[in-house]
Amino acid sequence: MSTMPVSLPEDAFIGPYRVVRKLGQGGMGVVYEALHTGLGRRVAIKVLRGELAADKEVAARFAHEARTVNRVEHPGVVQVVDLGEQPGGQPYIVMEFLRGQTLAERLKAQGGSLSWEEVVGLLVQVAEVLVVAHRADVVHRDLKPENIMLIEDAQLSSGLRVKLLDFGIAKIIDEANANHFKTKTGALLGSPAYMSPEQCKGSERVTVQADVYALGVVLFECLAGGMPHVADGPGHMVVLHMFGTPRSLRDLRRGLPEPVYALVERLLQKAPEARPSMSEVTSELRRLQQSARSGLGPRTRLGVATVAIVAAAAVALSGLWRLKSGRFPWQPAPIQVASPVGSPPVSPTERLPQPSAVAPAASNSDARQAAKAAAPRPPAGTASRGQPSPPAGDLRFAPVDVVKRPTDAPLSIKPVR
């Protein structure tokens, strides 16, 4: 019997649904686009592979997927609307039809990686779905880009709504189901590239922290354009998840906000208890999303806060300066007018006394009279050029002529000979 699923031709019928085309295939079955013949409703149908239908455990797990999906009530989970079985015994699940692309297809179209803002905006929706699933005691256990569907939605700021697919190997954590669907010894459920260390060990105690680890791998891949571990094959990959050191995202993708690096490192911790809860992951992704929407990264916000603090301190100091000096620091100090010693200081705003009017210039005769009065008188009893000295009390001076020359001093006194 062939291990590959045999595709149904177009116009074939699965119950009341007519096959339109094949959408894809996985390890357990094939997915088709189909149309309900009576209602005209477009749906997606997953049909279990024929060779697996004979395995009661696999068939039970396939039907278990439908019940698990309906247990997680969230718009981010693809809805199962019907469950049936083909005449040959192959079970099928009817789900809502989604028009969009998977995250794996988007990564390929964008060259392998996306901006950190877009990645945070998409994975915060994935985390929110998983928070609801974990509250319902459901672990997805196969989280990867192929199982994250992106649907156009104008109501969201990002324009894309996330739908989480394929709960085929999901595990319900409760006592009633603790012993159900145990795999054969050594069997691994999941995709090795995204499996947590505890899944790789084949542990029966796989908790919700397995989804936290897988989300960390998806986050790393979307940012770095590659996986945290590079392996030669599935077996090598399993060993690396258990014992290997992940590659450094800082070396593969520089310039990301520091909280992004820190979050990836926390998600990829080997010990489940060392990883954050999905609720904590959701809160951190929301903070990063808010940073992306505001256009300010953590470093930029720190710089803006520092500038605001410095500006506030400057305003406060300016106010204290004004209270002390009566002016702001940037205003010039008032000019102090020097005052004679012993006189009261003159205010710069006080008007100085105006000088008195200057008398008009004197005539030549007046100048001669003034010079005559100012000339020194000779001592009494002396004579000039042999003339007898005038009597005491009768002092006389020789007449003078005041002449102003361009080359001489402004005024010169010349005796008349």
Could you walk me through the main structural features you see in this protein, from its secondary elements to its overall organization?
- With 417 residues, the chain is an alpha+beta fold.
- The protein is built from twelve helices and 13 strands.
- It has helices at residues 50-53, 56-71, 103-109, 116-135, 197-200, 209-224, 234-243, 249-252, 258-267, 278-294, 298-325, 364-374; strands at residues 13-14, 17-25, 29-36, 42-48, 80-85, 91-96, 100-102, 138-139, 148-152, 160-164, 171-172, 400-403, 412-415.
- It has a six-stranded antiparallel sheet with strand order 1-2-3-4-6-5. Strands 7-9-10 form a three-stranded antiparallel sheet. A two-stranded antiparallel ribbon has the order 8-11.
- Helix 4 runs antiparallel to helix 6, helix 4 (116-135) runs antiparallel to helix 10 and helix 6 packs across helix 9 (258-267).
- The longest helix has 28 residues, at 298-325.
- It is elongated and about 155 Å long.
- The protein starts with 12 loop residues before the first strand and ends with a strand.
- Residues 1-5 and 175-186 have low confidence and may be disordered.
